[in-house]
Amino acid sequence: MKLTLGFSPCPNDTFIFDALIHHKIDTEGLDFEVFYDDVETLNQKAFRGELDITKLSYHAFAYMVDQYALLDAGSALGFGVGPMLICKGDPDELREKLKTDGASVKIGIPGKYTTANFLLGLAFPEATNKQELVFSEIEDAVLTGKIDVGLIIHENRFTYQDKGLKKIMDLGDYWEKETGCAIPLGGIVVNRNLPLDVQLKVNRLIRKSVEFAFADPKSGLEFIKSHAQEMSEEVMYKHIELYVNKYSVDLGEEGRKAINLLFDTAKRKEIIPQISKEIFLT
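That's the 1,4-dihydroxy-6-naphtoate synthase sequence above. Prediction below.
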């Protein structure tokens, strides 16, 4: 049986899925047609129902609970891993402006349905002047003055200072201080139209793939490097260390609590619609 599978070319996802798609583990009769896209492109493909299994931002997933169920394996949650607001000018001045006159600040975001944009809405509800950009283009847009503030994700949190850019706020840190929970960034979801035994098998296989990668972290090195946009090996593994952890093996009680809190907060603030289905694969 062949299933469509979408994930990002970022090191955390290629690390997680290497063993699965290259049959380093027994895939129990499943094969995969893989699509590599940035998270907002994956969000849009999921909205169109194009993928059987995909990485999704948790913000986008809130709109697709009827179509997809969240797997226990493969998620990106953690502490100190959140999106960051950066600028070229005075960070204190811009932080104040975001609070008092948010609509006057032009912000580059990596996608409307990213969890990063959701957190931005929580921290600065008045900051509504947003421009959607591919995440890898945001730093340059700040440098050239195309935008006043950039909302960065992924490996850009390791590189922005090298370009002379400054941090306004770490939105992951903001969430952690507000809630005491890990920040849920992205999860792996499976189409509810698939037979339940296949959905459960997919969850089991992704867990095995993560466990394989943890047992032999360099096993997928060439594959990870081939998608890492000229990133150094050191930055690649820093990225993996931040975004792949115990929650990627199994959400567990803590992970599920953090996700439920994220959704409950968003529903209360009317950022996402009400949800009637069980979000987790049971």
